[in-house]
C-alpha cells in the first residue's frame, strides 16, 4: 500500500509520535474550553476572551460555535485516518501486523492527543449535516479495523464470529482512554499501546497474545 495525502509527507514511524498539523489560535482556545467545561458549558464569548478577540472578529473566522466544534472534530479524525494509513503501510500485507499496528496507532493517539480525541464525546452537539460528515470519516477508521480483522480470519490467524461488532468494541475500548488516562502516571503511551495490543489479540483469539513487534 502506498501512502497518500498527509501521511505521504511524514517520516517513517511518525504515527507513533505526538505532534502533527497545528491548530489555529482560535481552535486551540476552543479546544481548551470545550475540554475543560464541555461544548454546552462554553460560550462564543468565552472562546473570544481566551484568544484575545472580539466576538465579531471570531465570527469572521467561524460561523458559530458548532462550526468551531466541527472544525476540531474534522482535524482530529483526519489526523487519525492519516496515522492509521501510515501504520498500515508500515505493517505490510501481514494481517496480524496490520491489526497490531492499528490498535497501537489508536491507543497512542488517544493517550498522546487526549484533548482532541475527547471531542468525539461532543458529537451530539452537531447538526445533521456536520454529524453526517464527521460520521463518514469516523467510519473510515472503523472500516480499516474491520478489514484487518476479516483478513486475519481469512488467513486463519483470528477466530471472530462478528468482525464488525468486534471492531466497534475495540474502538470503544480505545476511545475510553481519553476518560481515564493520566499522562503523568506510571504507564506511558508506548507501554499502554503494547498492553492494549495484548488485550486486542486475545479478543480476536490469536494463537498467542504477545505482539509480534
Q: What gap, in angstroms, lies between the N and C termini?
A: 19 Å
SS content category: mainly alpha
> What is the count of distinct domains?
2
Q: What portion of residues belong to β-strands?
A: under 5%
Mean pLDDT: 93
Extended strand count: 0
Using the 3D structure, state the CATH architecture of the largest domain.
Answer: Orthogonal Bundle
What is the percent of helical residues? 55-70%
Biggest pleated sheet: none
Shape: elongated
The Rg value, from CA coordinates, equals: 18 Å
CATH superfamily of the largest domain: Tetracycline Repressor, domain 2
Given as residue ranges, the uncertain stretches (5+ residues, pLDDT < 50) are none
CATH top level class name of the largest domain? Mainly Alpha
Order of helices and strands: HHHHHHHHHH
CATH topology of the largest domain: Tetracycline Repressor, domain 2
Total number of helices: 10
Plain-language structure description:
The chain has 213 residues and is mainly α. The mean pLDDT is 93. It has two domains: 41 residues, Homeodomain-like (Arc Repressor Mutant, subunit A, Orthogonal Bundle), CATH 1.10.10; 137 residues, Tetracycline Repressor, domain 2 (Orthogonal Bundle). It is elongated.
Question: How do the helices and strands line up, and which of them pair or pack?
Answer:
Layout: H1 25-37, H2 44-51, H3 55-61, H4 65-91, H5 95-112, H6 114-118, H7 128-154, H8 163-175, H9 177-180, H10 189-203
Helix pairs in contact: 1-2, 4-5, 4-7, 5-7, 5-8, 5-10, 7-8
Amino acid at each position: 500500500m502506498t501512502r497518500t495525502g498527509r501521511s505521504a509527507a511524514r517520516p517513517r514511524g511518525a504515527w507513533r509520535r505526538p505532534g502533527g498539523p497545528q491548530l489555529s489560535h482560535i481552535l486551540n482556545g476552543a479546544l481548551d474550553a470545550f475540554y475543560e467545561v464541555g461544548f454546552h458549558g462554553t460560550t462564543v464569548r468565552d472562546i473570544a476572551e481566551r484568544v484575545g478577540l472580539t466576538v465579531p472578529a471570531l465570527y469572521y473566522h467561524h460561523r458559530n460555535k458548532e462550526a468551531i466544534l466541527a472544525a476540531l472534530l474534522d482535524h482530529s479524525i483526519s489526523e487519525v485516518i492519516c496515522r492509521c494509513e501510515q501504520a498500515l503501510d508500515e505493517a505490510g500485507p501481514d494481517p496480524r501486523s496490520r491489526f497490531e499496528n492499528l490498535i497501537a496507532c489508536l491507543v497512542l493517539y488517544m493517550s498522546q492527543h487526549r484533548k482532541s480525541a475527547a471531542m468525539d464525546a461532543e458529537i451530539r452537539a452537531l447538526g445533521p449535516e456536520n454529524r453526517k460528515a464527521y460520521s463518514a470519516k469516523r467510519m473510515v477508521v472503523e472500516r480499516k479495523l474491520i478489514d484487518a480483522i476479516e483478513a486475519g480470519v481469512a488467513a486463519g490467524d483470528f477466530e471472530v464470529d462478528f468482525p464488525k461488532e468486534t471492531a466497534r468494541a475495540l474502538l470503544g475500548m480505545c476511545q475510553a482512554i481519553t476518560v481515564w488516562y493520566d499522562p503523568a502516571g506510571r504507564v506511558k503511551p508506548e507501554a499502554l499501546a503494547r498492553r492494549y495490543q495484548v488485550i486486542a489479540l486475545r479478543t480476536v483469539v490469536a494463537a498467542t497474545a504477545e505482539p509480534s513487534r
